[in-house]
From TrEMBL:
Compartments (UniProt record): Cytoplasm
Record-given protein name: Probable dual-specificity RNA methyltransferase RlmN
Top EC category: transferase
Primary site of residence: cytoplasm
């Protein structure tokens, strides 16, 4: 694939103090040494945070009391405070509104299924992609989240499952970067977060890379860059329509990188990783749900990705006051049928949390 220009991150302003989860193992040892402690204390701290899923210095009884307080204050500053939890689906879904150190609000959603437990994490507070049907996009971008703010969403969810907060104790198994924000617009911190999430303890949370999905609206250069990281995470592309004319409106970044450019980058990712790409398609009544668009979608995906693709049709979660609405079920079924008939695997995604402001950004907008 031809080298592509890089997508640069937003400024660092507003990010929290550096945290243990922002650092590599070498950086943690150096930071501990600068505080006058032996380097092995870094491994002890990391074992508690990543292995035992705790940031409470009182629980770190293998470290002298005076040292643990000093180390925790310097390297494990509080990052996220729960504003409120909302549960539904018989307790199998829990959405959390978090407040960061600077008052920024963000969300994550923990979902328990019979065969897995999935956490949907945010990578930014708000989003700058301005997709008009998305609650987060309507609010604009506040700031990027730090690596540690992303990782801490995962750590607290893993602890919640271990402690039985969603019923019987269980294990967090899957991570999807499909919450607030465009992950590839916060590229460096998202990649670092994926590494912390997937490295084995004491350097990470030990979740398989193959169980992590990174979503994007189609920042083609960053997709290529992510492929070159040689990780095994799944790529999900929020396409929403196969034609540039409509996509320029639904996903404004399409005016910079067209459908063909996005799908070419996705094919490069599939070739390098060996993993099938997910295409996300929010079905919107009378906007992108026409039969001819289903046929065109199948044709373009078959041309670009052959069998290395799966389409997730997503029933739209309308937001209050929005002009957008979900397609009727018969229209949805016909759309899925036509994509499958066109030779591309297509299913409807299971929707969760419709009664608790399920669309990303709704809870934060309510405050």
């Amino acid at each position: 694939m031809t080298a592509l220009p890089l997508v640069f991150d937003a400024p660092r302003r507003g990010l929290p103090p550096r945290h243990l989860a922002d650092m590599s193992a070498e950086e943690r040892r150096a930071a501990v040494t600068e505080l006058g402690e032996k380097p092995f204390r870094a491994n002890q701290l990391a074992h508690h945070y990543f292995g035992r899923l705790t940031a409470d210095p009182a629980a770190m009884t293998d470290i002298p009391a005076a040292s643990r307080t000093r180390l925790a204050e310097a390297l494990m500053p509080p990052l996220l405070t729960v504003v409120r939890h909302l549960a539904c689906d018989g307790g199998a879904t829990r959405k959390t509104l978090w407040r960061a150190h600077d008052g920024t609000l963000l969300e994550s959603v923990l979902m328990r299924y019979p065969d897995r437990v999935t956490l949907c994490v945010s990578s930014q507070a708000g989003c700058g992609m301005a997709c008009p049907f998305c609650a987060t996009g309507q609010g604009g971008l506040q700031r990027n989240l730090s690596t540690a703010e992303i990782v801490d969403q995962v750590r607290t969810a893993a602890a919640a499952m271990r402690d039985g907060d969603l019923g019987a104790p269980g294990r967090l198994s899957n991570i999807v970067f499909m919450g607030m924000g465009e992950p590839l617009a916060n590229y460096k911190r998202v990649v670092e977060a994926v590494r912390r999430i997937t490295e084995p303890a004491p350097n990470g949370l030990g979740i398989s890379q193959r169980s992590v999905t990174v979503s994007t609206v189609g920042l083609a250069p960053a997709i290529g860059k992510l492929a070159d990281e040689k990780m095994q995470v799944r790529l999900a592309v929020s396409l929403h329509t196969p034609d540039d004319e409509l996509r320029d409106t639904l996903v404004p970044v399409n005016t910079r990188w067209s459908v063909d450019e996005v799908l070419s980058a996705a094919r490069y990712y599939a070739d390098v990783s060996g993993r099938r790409v997910s295409i996300e398609y929010a079905l919107i009544r009378d906007v992108n749900d026409q039969p001819w668009r289903a046929d065109l979608l199948a044709r373009r995906l078959r041309e670009h990705l052959n069998q290395l693709v799966h389409v997730n049709v997503i029933p739209l979660n309308p937001t209050p006051g929005s002009q957008w609405d979900a397609s009727p079920k018969p229209v949805e079924r016909e759309f899925v049928r036509r994509v499958n008939a066109g030779g591309v695997a297509c299913t409807v995604r299971d929707t969760r949390g419709q009664e608790i402001a399920a669309a990303c950004g709704q809870l934060a907008a309510e405050g």
